[in-house]
Structures are given as structure tokens and as C-alpha cells.
Amino acid sequence: MSSFEDLSFSFxxxxxxxxxxPLPNLVxxxxxxxxxRVFEPRYRRLLEDALAGDRLxxxxxxxxxxxxxxxxxPPLCPAACLARVTTHHRLDDGTYNLLVLGLRRVRLVRELxxxxxxxxxxxxxxxxxxxxxxxGCRAPLMMRLRKALLRVLPTLPEAHEQMDQLLATDLExxxxxxxLSYLLDVEIAAKQVLLGEANVYRRAExxxxxxxxxxxxxxxxxxxxxxxxxxxxx
Length: 234
Prior knowledge:
By secondary structure, the protein is an alpha+beta fold. The protein has 2 domains: about 15-125, LON domain-like (Archaeosine Trna-guanine Transglycosylase, Chain: A, domain 4); about 130-225. Helices cover about 30% and strands about 25% of the residues. Strands 1-3-4-5-6 form a 5-stranded mixed beta barrel. It starts with 16 loop residues before the first strand and ends with a strand.
């Protein structure tokens, strides 16, 4: 069983080449931790290579229609999340349980020719964008987020108190929207759009479009049914 490693990330040391861990039903965001169960031989090899090196992988999403070629190289959605393995445990059968931390948004530039059992790609880092001309949007967006969350959170005083404490901090709105986009239950396609939006104010508006939708509307967000999330299997 490994312990948590250094979670810092250096742009200077990042080559732009990543190991791809694509899944059909998980969109990882920066700033959050996701449990994973790794059992396919190709992804066990990916993990072992990552642990022997920089501990990095890119969590990508399989594009619709992936079922026809899952064992091959089905198309991927262009936005992915660069992640680092923070801790892992190898089971007696050779499979692994691990935790990965989302580090940065990335855009898939091109997939590399096969040289290992798993897929690799060249990616471009996508930093959060805070347009100076939109700086005045932060306060009203935070107020709308609070109001919208009050509507969808359980009517528990503890939940509202924790939310107020979170929103009262100096947490950057980009971090907040990522955490909420990950935790709230919404279809994969909508989460993929949120992951692909680097402008934090536009991302907040996209998130609010779901949170403020009328009850019963298609795509409306609601609290995740299980937290912490269960292990996601490859």
C-alpha cells in the first residue's frame, strides 16, 4: 500500500505526452480525488509504468459508439483531465485499487502510434481563464450558485452550513465549479462540456444552467447519490 505522494505539479517537467486511461462513464475534474479499480491487463501495465515514472495519466472519456471497438482504439472526447496516482494497493490477484487526483484540464492534440498495450497521446495543458473584463461577474455568480445549491441540496441544516462555509472562503470560482461539476449528478455529455470550458465564468454559467433548470427538466443537476463516490472500474 503506498502513501500519499507529493501532489505538486510542474509545468516545466511535463513533456506533453500522456498515458490514456479512457472510460465510458467517468469525467474527472481538476481538484478532486477519484477511486479507481484497475483490472484489465493493459491498464495494469499502464499503472505499473506510471508508478515507475511520473505517476501521471490522462483520464479521458470514450466518445459515443465506443461499444463497437472497446478492445481497440475507439474515438475519445477531446477534453480530458491529467491526473496523478496518489495512493495504490495491489491485490493478491494482480488487480489494483487506487486514488487519482485531478491536476489540470488537457486537450487531446493527437494520439500516438501504438508502442505499448495501452494508448498514449500528445496533449495541451488548458489553464483556467479569468478574463479581466469579466472580473465583476464573480460576486453575482457566487450568489447565484448559493441560491441554486440551496434548491437542490437536502433540507439539512448541516449541509447548508457546510455550503455557506465553502462559499464564504476565498476559493477560486474555477475550483468551486470543478468540484461541484464532479459531485453533482448530471449526464456524461454535460460534464464533458463543463470539463472542456476553460473560461471560469462561462463554466459557472453552464453549471448554473443545469442547477437553475425547473424540477424534472432534462439534464437538471441534483446531489450525487453516493459520496464519497464508489470505485470506478475500467
